[in-house]
Amino acid sequence: MSSTYARFDTVFLLSRFAGAKYSPLWPSSSSSSSSSSHSSLLSSGTHLRAKPNSRLRSVTAASSGPIIAGSESIEIKSLPTKPIEGQKTGTSGLRKKVKVFMQDNYLANWIQALFNSLPLEDYKDATLVLGGDGRYFNKEASQIIIKIAAGNGVGKILVGQEGILSTPAVSAVIRKRKANGGFIMSASHNPGGPEYDWGIKTVDDDESPNLSDPYINFQFNYSSGQPAPESITDKIYGNTLSISEIKVAEIPDIDLSHVGVTKYGNFSVEVIDPVSDYLELMEDVFDFDLIRGLLSRSDFGFMFDAMHAVTGAYAKPIFVDNLGAKPDSISNGVPLEDFGHGHPDPNLTYAKDLVDVMYRDDGPDFGAASDGDGDRNMVLGNKFFVTPSDSVAMIAANAQEAIPYFRAGPKGLARSMPTSGALDRVAEKLKLPFFEVPTGWKFFGNLMDAGKLSICGEESFGTGSDHIREKDGIWAVLAWLSILAHRNKDKKPGEKLVSVADVVNEYWATYGRNFFSRYDYEECESEGANKMIEYLRDIVAKSKAGENYGNYVLQFADDFSYTDPVDGSVASKQGVRFVFTDGSRIIFRLSGTGSAGATVRIYIEQFEPDVSKHDVDAQIALKPLIGSFLSCIVCIKAEGVYREGEAHCHYMREKTILCHMVLMKGELGS
């Protein structure tokens, strides 16, 4: 399929930390010529669209210092507009074809509707943060957002140099500088570039990939530091249906290539170094001297794959300049608008270059990768892959002794429902509060704000803590380096180092192993996929504890529902679960029900306490559970024709055939 999509996510954040110690990533003497391609918000007539604006060249040419003064006041235009159909904002944002997004007033309507949905005190004369992952079109979108923000009375915009700020860095900047909120322009882990009609691919509500649909992701974080609640996103949609005007400031495009302040009357735009605030926060959380001692060892190999995405702007300053890693340890470290024609998704399939290096006999001891906007991570040892579900559990198990931020111990632990139960066992052993929440980082944010949660994670390569209100890829990498550095701090040259595999095997010996895998069936007919889920819900309604599914005994089955312990809100129909008495689980979730069809996700988990069986390949270990369960209960058929479904396994290096699971277009059968 060749359709092109755009997605705009909304979220507002709150600030906490102070101070900054870092020189700008790009020197102020860098050329401003790149800014001449920025798009103007204003065009002929009363419409708003992204279009080249030659006025920027005169503005940048007039810049002679860190502060550029404009006129004493700015003119605000009220541009007539009409509602545009289809701007319904879901829990993770607005998704449309990019060609639709680029229509007259489409982006501008939605931004204005957002401001119309917020209390005046949330943005009037306030400071907001703006940044993104550096992909194609973000600079143009930045100019549109800045002008509408100024037109609505925002006092100041903090924007990353060249429009770059990772998702975790936006949170860090907001919390440190006490900004009222922020905008994140990102397509997370999906490809970018002009060949994809702005080069951004769509994802479903939990940011999992739909491989056919390029998109833009625009995220707006609310004051608590987490994704906007549905009450806000519902208001935005309501206002898109009645919008009649767009408030726009008549100011030139801002030069994003130079760190400094541009002022127009009472409105100002400060272009900031994208790294310094985030780096300072990491120095507060971790013992950099301890990590530096590990990375400077001649007998320890390290590699980080930035995948030509936003963490390329952070990798050298953090890992090389501050922690002493070798310059050649950073792979694909230059952020590119098209990610080097790659797919910036840190898994075994798309981070193949890193995986190939890590699986060599002489490969590094530790490797990691992060995604497009820097909030996801993958961790590898030499010839050893750590699943995201295991990774968050192992970080939690070692956090108190290895990471200064947790010296007093974590407040609590949490995971998304589909994530394996490994973290549950850590919480039980450490006697910590534990929470199982629906997929979506906002559910963690409420718990963090209430002081109930410190460390959390999702099986989709997202790990984080309460240092910010977003998942954080580089944080997870530094956490693992801290664990390894702590375990090896007394090792002398020539002594065998504690490896990633050693840490994992020790954890399994203590807590047991949760074999886990996820299968994605993509671009299924939405109608048939919905019928399948309804069929499963019918099975759940009729199921009874003690029923046998092959060799497995059912403990309970349900459609997961979550009541937030902080605000009492309820999230229902979050995934169909079959949980067995030995701790095994099979979970079905439906996501991405757009015009490209639905994605059916199946999560398979089996707990194994026997140490002698911990080295078994996960697919082999899970095969009996898959065979006993799926062959009995579910399939989708088309005109009586059945076939096995080809699924993309999230934790393997190639596509796999999931036996007995049949997904076809059409009517449900059994």
Automatic annotation (TrEMBL):
PANTHER family registered for this protein in UniProt: PHOSPHOGLUCOMUTASE, CHLOROPLASTIC, PHOSPHOHEXOMUTASE FAMILY MEMBER
Domain annotation Alpha-D-phosphohexomutase alpha/beta/alpha: ranges: 87-241, 277-380, 389-490
Pfam family for this entry, one: PGM_PMM_III
Signal peptide segment: none
Subcellular location: Plastid, Chloroplast
InterPro entries per the UniProt record, alphabetical: A-D-PHexomutase_a/b/a-I (IPR005844), A-D-PHexomutase_a/b/a-I/II/III (IPR016055), A-D-PHexomutase_a/b/a-II (IPR005845), A-D-PHexomutase_a/b/a-III (IPR005846), A-D-PHexomutase_C_sf (IPR036900), A-D-PHexomutase_CS (IPR016066), Alpha-D-phosphohexomutase_SF (IPR005841), PGM (IPR045244)
Identification of the protein by name: phosphoglucomutase (alpha-D-glucose-1,6-bisphosphate-dependent)
Catalyzed chemical reaction(s): alpha-D-glucose 1,6-bisphosphate + L-seryl-[protein] = O-phospho-L-seryl-[protein] + alpha-D-glucose 6-phosphate; O-phospho-L-seryl-[protein] + alpha-D-glucose 1-phosphate = alpha-D-glucose 1,6-bisphosphate + L-seryl-[protein]; alpha-D-glucose 1-phosphate = alpha-D-glucose 6-phosphate
Family designation: Belongs to the phosphohexose mutase family.
Domain of life from the UniProt record: Eukaryota
Keywords: Carbohydrate metabolism, Chloroplast, Glucose metabolism, Isomerase, Magnesium, Metal-binding, Phosphoprotein, Plastid, Transit peptide
The protein's Enzyme Commission number: 5.4.2.2
Record bears the keyword Transport: no
